[in-house]
Amino acid sequence: MTKKIMATILTAVTILGTVGCSSEPETSGASVPETPEINFSDYETEEKFISFIDLPPDPNKALDDYKGLGFSGFILTEDFVSLTQKGKMTDSYKNAVKKLNDSGFGVYIRNQYNDPYYFDTTAEGSAEYERNYSLDSRKLTNEFRDNGGVAGFYMADEPTFEKFSQFTPLINWYNANYSDTYFHMNLFPSYAGQAGFKGHSYEEYVQEYIDKVASKVKGKKSVCLDNYPFNRSDSIRASFLSDLLVTATKTKKYNETVKDADKAYMGLCIQTFYDGGLVDIKGSADVSFQLLCGMAMGAKIYEYFCYRSYIDGATRLNGIFDSNMQKRVYDYVKEANEKYLGFGKVVNAFEWQGVNTLHASDAKKIENEEAFSSVQGLVSENTGKLDLGGCKSKLDTIIGSFKKGDDYGYMVVNYTLPSAGKSNVVELAFKNATHAVVYSATETGVNSSIVALAGGKARISLEAGDGVFVIPV
Question: Using an 8 Å Cβ cutoff, are 468 and 13 in contact?
Answer without folding.
Answer: yes
